[in-house]
Write a structure and sequence with these properties.
With 80 residues, this protein is mostly helical.
């Protein structure tokens, strides 16, 4: 791979990372919301044990909130 191609690849990667930093938290929360809904459906359908479902139903929102809080700080903004 030539140096020009490597530079282009790095620039493209940095552009993707910068765009993901601009993604609103609402979009980043969608996978967490889907996980919570799937746990609720699995618990209701009997696929997931009741105790496990209750634990997951309590833990997933906490993990989601913590990950979104950490994701709100973009490292690229500090370096620009």
């Amino acid at each position: 791979m030539t140096l020009d191609k490597q530079v282009e690849l790095v620039n493209d990667t940095l552009h993707i990372i910068k765009e993901s930093c601009l993604m609103p938290n609402m979009l980043k929360a969608i996978p967490w919301a889907l996980a919570i809904v799937m746990v609720a459906i699995g618990g209701r359908a009997g696929i997931i044990d009741d105790a496990t479902g209750r634990t997951m139903f309590a833990v997933l929102p906490i993990l989601g909130a913590l990950s979104l809080r950490a994701a709100g700080k973009c490292r690229l903004e500090a370096s620009e």
